[in-house]
Structures are given as C-alpha cells and as structure tokens.
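Bug #77: duplicate submission created two jobs. Keeping one. Sequence:
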Amino acid sequence: MNHNSISEIRDLLDRHEIGLKKRFGQNFLIDSATRHRIGSLIAQVLPRPLPGSGEIWEIGPGLGALTDELRALELPLRLFEIDRGVIRVLRERYGEDLPIEGGDFLDTFRGLPAPGAIVGNLPYHSAGAMVPRIVESGLAVPVMVFLLQSEMVDRLVSPRGCKTYSALSVLVQSHYQVERAFLVPAGVFYPRPQVGSAVAVLRELPHRPSREVTEQISLLTREAFGQRRKTLRNTWKAWLPALEECGIDPGLRPEELQPETFRLLAEHLRGVPGAGQPRAVRDGR
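Kept job's structure:
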C-alpha cells in the first residue's frame, strides 16, 4: 500500500470499518523520507547478531509503515498491536509470516523472552507508562528506538538541574545511554498531532542494575520527585542514615543528583556488596 496517501489510508480504514481511537493515539507516518530515516537509524544501531531471542519487537505498528522498513532488515520481527481492526489489516497484509501479539503491550509482553531490540511509534498518551514499565520489567534489551512526543524525549535526555529532569529521566538513564536522534515535524503524520515528535535511541549501559535495584531506584525517584523542591532531608527521612553512609549530602534537592547517585543509594539499600564504597558522592556529581 501507499503509506504516503491519506486517501488510501482512509479507504483502507473504511473498508475494515476502523474508526481511529483517541485512546490508542493513532497517528500514521505518511512521509517516506522520515520512515526511511528511522529504518536506517535502526539498522545502524542494532547489535549484530541480535542477542536474546534474536527478535525485533515493534510496538504499535499501525498499518505497517515502519514494519515494511523493518522487514527489509530480514531479521525476526514480532508485532504488538492493541486495535483489533488494525490487527485484521496486518493479517491481511502479512499473512502468518509475522507473529502478532494482540492487546495492550503492557500485558502481552510478559513471559516472552527478551528481544534483541524494541522499536515503535509509541502512542503519546501511553508512552510515559510504557517506557518505564519496560525498564522496570527486568528485560535486558540492548537497544530501543522510539518515535515519541518531543516533550517526552526532553525528559528522557534531560541532565540534572533542568526543569525537565524527572523520575523518568533518572530511571531510564540509570539503565540506558539516551540520545535524541532527530526531530520529526507534526506534518508527517495523519491525523496531524498538535505537538512535534522526536526519535530517541536508548542503548543499554554495561552492568545494568539488577531488577531489585531497579525497583529501589523507582521507589526513591517517586518519593524524591513527588516533592522535588524539598531537600533530601525532608523527602527521604527514612533513608537519612543510608545517605550518610553513602556520602550523599541530605541538603541537596533530588534534581541536583546524578542518576548514578540514585543507583548508588539504591544498591546500598538493597545490600549490594561494595555499594557506596569506595566512592563518596557528597555533592551528587
């Protein structure tokens, strides 16, 4: 099909009696140059051979615009799609060649072996829950490439001290090196969204935290950034002895701490041998 043709997309949706649902955040990529650019980026950052299950997971394939780019890589591919009508279109286009997991990705990915990469044009309304859930799940995914709302990418890449630095920034940066690859204008989507987008690349850090430490990082960040203008002395009262043991100044605010400092404290609280030693992090730097 011609993914650049709005009329062809409308005809296909009408033929399958698919009404676009706001809750699914369905915005189709209708610019071939942007699709090729994303596909080329994915090909460039993929580890070879793909570890884990050796699959690429695509979240929210829609009508298959990015899927076609991924199929050109000739690597095992698994799709995750929530809209039943769209699943019918995908089955019609690809037959049984591609495994398709129907339902909410946050439910359907559980129990599957970790993939070699996760990619997707993520729905704006659910990406904020989806990305941290992947990290918290313990899946060791070497590379993730997502097309996201620009504002969310700002939060993912934000350094400490910035207004956009958040619990999400800390959690993701504790596990991944995050890069904003390029911006994507609203005009390359149908329907056209009200905001701009960007492509983010997440590369797994060496020696990622254990799942238990990840859970502790999540707890620490929720407590800290729920009252981000308060000092750690006030937000982490139960953990003041641990702060002292790790050499972290309780007079700092959470937005002044590096992700590595959150991890240091989380490892100490979870009893990781050698955590907090020999490096003291008195100023969060």
